[in-house]
Amino acid sequence: REAESFKEQGNAYYAKKDYNEAYNYYTKAIDTCPNNASYYGNRAATLMMLGRFREALGDAQQSVRLDDTFVRGHLREGKCHLSLGNAMAASRCFQRVLELDHKNTQAQQELKNASTVLEYEKIAEVDFEKRDFRKVVFCMDRALEFAPACHRFKILKAECLALLGRYPEAQSVA
């Protein structure tokens, strides 16, 4: 009952977009009852809103370890993987959601987003070999729309900007 009370308080702060306080209350709920998947799922959502995708990924993964049928946990895990630039792992998570709920439109859309990122990665790889750095920068910009926390994409973009002689931009990205 105490854990549920903490969760409810966390939900209230989350609704007010006070994600730091929401995080604190979800953490208290987890400390009180560490085997509840939804508490980890809620804290993962809060961490995602704070842009802390690596930490959020850990919580999302814990939520699905505790309950493999927890659809929102799989969705959040996938979104974290995608934000961090791991489109393959993201695809697996979204496919798992569709196994559990084949009509889940969010998972269907996110699966397309993951495929888009994979496609831009492939194109960028080929264009880098061809030394078409402008096109690589273009591909990385598109991929970063879906994977804003991916250091690998940012570094590749910065490297290509430097190779194009666009040093201030490269430095800014790096």
Describe this structure in words.
TPR repeats lie at residues 3-36. This is DNJC7 protein. It comes from Piaya cayana. With 174 residues, this protein is an all-alpha fold. It has a domain at 112-171: Alpha Horseshoe (Serine Threonine Protein Phosphatase 5, Tetratricopeptide repeat). It contains 10 helices and no strands. The mean pLDDT is 97.
Q: Compute the separation of the termini in Å.
A: 48 Å
Point out poorly predicted stretches: none
Over all CA atoms, what is the radius of gyration? 19 Å
Average pLDDT = 97
Which percent range describes the beta-strand content? under 5%
The computed structural class is: mainly alpha
CATH architecture of the domain at 112-171: Alpha Horseshoe
- The string of secondary-structure elements, in order, is HHHHHHHHHH
CATH topology of the domain at 112-171: Serine Threonine Protein Phosphatase 5, Tetratricopeptide repeat
**Main beta sheet strand tally, sense and closure:** none
Please give the CATH class of the domain at 112-171: Mainly Alpha
Give the number of DSSP strands: 0
Number of helices: 10
Note the overall shape.
elongated
- How helical, in percent, are the residues? over 70%
Keywords: TPR repeat
Protein name: DNJC7 protein
Pfam family, one: TPR_11
Notable traits:
174 residues; elongated; mainly alpha; Serine Threonine Protein Phosphatase 5, Tetratricopeptide repeat; SRC_co-chaperone; TPR-like_helical_dom_sf
